[in-house]
Design goal:
There is one protein chain. The chain is an all-alpha fold. The protein is about 80% helix and about 5% strand. It has 13 helices and two strands; from the N terminus they run ααββααααααααααα.
């Protein structure tokens, strides 16, 4: 009887925790939609802010976010996948593997504001770059690199060892085996890690305050690399903290929430499709 009562109480507690989590999510989504959805218009999405015409548009911020994602992932994907492949397939000294793994785990736990400070000191003051997409993208590349390395490493380790042995037994070289057997079978985890990195880049603001700047003007990609360029998250901070326009900030928050949900759903769908192809 006591065991049944204990089990019932534990089930009730777990159901309560799950219900509270769902309610918090629904409350957050509902509150943001109520506050920000009325301010989202076609002009708001496709124009830039003009204080002369007293109009606000976030097209430059959307483009700056896309520029930042492109620059960051251009650096992260080869470095992250290459490091994971080295750790799982080529590294022979376990001490070196443990040291690199410890460094990756340590980087994962460092606050983003510290990455922004280091990025400002290194890329802007030491290397002479200006505030813009390039400095911000390189800083975020360092910040999300551990995410890509960890996910890629776990995916590579999940590939059965028999696949490697079979490829080598058929006369395949080490790199040919990794390229044609290991990486294709680990692609679902690699894509998931990359999409999670994109999601973190999209929602990052603290590091960009030091490196990317606050510019709200519409710039092309080449100009934005070395010009102050605010992403959606930085624009949200500017409108809410500096200008006190909370209605605009809530509208940007709705867009960021929609982008985050879209990225998470895309990661889940891609992972399921790749698993079906394997099966």
């Amino acid at each position: 009887m006591r065991r049944r009562i204990t089990v019932c109480l534990l089930r009730a507690g777990m159901l309560l925790c799950a219900a509270l989590t769902c309610l918090l999510l629904l409350f957050l989504i509902g509150y943001l939609l109520c506050q920000g959805l009325p301010g989202i218009t076609w002009k708001f999405l496709t124009s830039q802010t003009s204080y002369i015409q007293n109009s606000i548009g976030i097209l430059p911020n959307i483009l700056n976010t896309l520029y930042l994602i492109f620059v960051s992932m251009l650096v992260v994907i080869p470095l992250g996948i290459g490091a994971a492949v080295y750790l799982t397939e080529y590294a022979s000294h376990q001490r070196l593997v443990r040291a690199i793994s410890f460094a990756v785990e340590t980087l994962t736990g460092i606050p983003s504001i510290i990455f922004g400070l280091v990025g400002m000191l290194f890329f802007i003051q030491l290397l002479g770059l200006r505030q813009g997409i390039l400095a911000g993208g390189l800083t975020l590349a360092i910040m999300v690199l551990p995410t890509v390395i960890s996910n890629t490493k776990e995916s590579l380790l999940s590939v059965p060892q028999a696949y490697r042995e079979g490829a080598l037994a058929l006369g395949s070289g080490k790199w040919h085996m990794v390229r044609t057997v290991v990486l294709p079978n680990a692609m679902d985890g690699i894509l998931t890690g990359c999409l999670l990195a994109v999601g973190r880049i999209t929602g990052e603001s603290a590091a960009l305050l030091f490196t990317a700047g606050f510019g709200l003007k519409l710039l092309d990609f080449a100009t934005a690399l070395q010009s102050s360029s605010a992403t959606l998250t930085v624009a949200l901070y500017v409108y809410a903290s500096e200008e006190g326009k909370y209605d605009v900030a809530f509208s940007i928050a709705v867009i960021l929430m929609a982008v985050t949900l879209l990225i998470n759903l895309s990661a889940e769908i891609m992972a399921k499709r790749l698993k079906r192809k394997k099966g």
